[in-house]
Amino acid sequence: MGWTKKQILLALMMVVTGSINTLSTKWADEIDAENSAGEVTKFVHPYFQTEGMFIGEILCMLAFYIMRCMERRKRREQVEMSPSTTQSTKFPKYIFLLPALCDTLATSTMYLGLTLTYASSFQMLRGAVIVFTGLLSVAFLGRKIKWFQWLGILIIIVGLVIVGVSDILVPTGEGDYTTNKIITGDLLIIAAQVITASQMVLEEKFVLGHDVPPLLAVGWEGVFGFTIMTILIIPFNFIDGGVFAQNPSGTLEDIPDAFYQIGTTPLLLVPILGNIFSIAFFNFAGVSVTKELSATTRMVLDSVRTLVVWIFSLIITWQEFQYLQPVGFVVLILGMMLYNDIIILPFCRSRGWISQTETPDDTEPVIAASSSSASSARIVEADKRGIDNQGSTVEVM
Questions:
Q1: How far apart are CA 353 and CA 365, in angstroms?
Q2: What residue ranges do the domains of the chain occupy?
């Protein structure tokens, strides 16, 4: 049975807005603008851009309440009042505090890494979240990982190594990208995936047991994340940034300088606003794809946007082609397919090459995307399958 026009539109929206997430952030990093010291430099303000991401997540809460009002109005206009399908908004909001803290640390670290490396590498290396999520799930949730998931993790690690090596082998230009910067950026992105994996484990432990609408969950993480980041940015304006300082004041962040550069180069508003709204639309499309199709489909589409980011980066010469990078991408995809039991193993079962009993009924696909989009996918999938108070899966009749 083929996809409907609505499903195709949602899939395209997810791929396009998901690609814009990364590309708009990198575009802002690449724009030259006069700073507060009178010098023309790149716009390197990762923590300022993290605030923008959280604003995009908060917009998801606005979208939820707009859709809620539309549903209520539609029901009022019906002659026969049908039962409401609106989920309850009564749940403890504090359950999002720790996940939001993880989201804040992970996103700001990834954005910092993105200023030092390529956009395509940024997108591919986020696949490391599957490795750390699997390991942390075993350690803290007592989850059992099947043999093909361990094999998937091993293959993903190989793919990550290939991507890292390909970054080092790409000819670097003077000033913008050096080998040390690229290695540092890649390591920061991988380190951020440990924090993202911790967020996913915390959400499974404390959030999935509650009946939380996915868009509202993203919105509340945005509220807490924006608050935490705003508090942290204040001391960041005074703390010596060391090797990571790329602003006139030499601090971790310089918010006045960020607004000064925007004032001197209004073009910066395009990628900044593009990132904010693409985050909102990406989460909305992702939630809809998971609901209409499955979290596995969402993972496949997320892989497609990784390919889009890489091809686009080559076209506009943000980086030069290196033959190992597509090899690393393919290896990563193979590892993700094995871990999430899609395409490869189902094909082998259909041919009778492996036992039909080897099915991961208790496994939820891990979305190697932003923290918020991954959490919303898991919440929707959990809602479809049923989750008890301990976070284990329950069959829904």
A1: 23
A2: 5-72+88-385
- DSSP character at residue 393: B
Angle of helix 5-30 relative to helix 97-114, nearest 10 degrees, comes to: 60
| Buried/exposed 158-186: b ≥16 CB within 10 Å, e otherwise | ebbebbbebbeebebeeeebeeebbebbb
Measure the CA–CA gap between 214 and 324, rounded to whole angstroms.
37
Bridge partners of residue 34, in order along the sequence: 40
The total number of residues shown for the chain amounts to 397
Rounded CA-CA distance 216/219 in Å is 5
What tokens were used for 266?
């209004």
Is the four-CA dihedral 349, 352, 358, 359 of positive or negative sign? positive
Q: Are 278 and 24 a contacting pair, CB within 8 Å?
A: yes
Q: Could you give the residue ranges of the DSSP H alpha helices within 141-254?
A: 147-169, 179-206, 214-236
- With tokens 């204040």, the residue in question is 234
pLDDT tens digit string along 99-132?
999 999 999 999 999 999 999 999 999 999 999 9
Note the Cα 86 to chain centre separation in Å: 26
Residues 6+ positions from 72 with CB-CB distance below 8 Å: 84, 86
Residues sharing a CB contact under 8 Å with residue 201, sequence separation 6 or more, in sequence order: 133, 136, 137, 140, 141
Q: Rounded to 10 degrees, what is the CA torsion of 237, 243, 249, 254?
A: -40
Check if the beta carbon of residue 118 is closer than 8 Å to that of residue 242: no
pLDDT tens for 279-304 read: 999 998 988 887 887 777 887 888 89
Bridge-based pairing of strands 32-34 and 40-42 is: antiparallel
SS3 breakdown of the chain: % helix, strand, coil, rounded to 5?
70, 5, 30
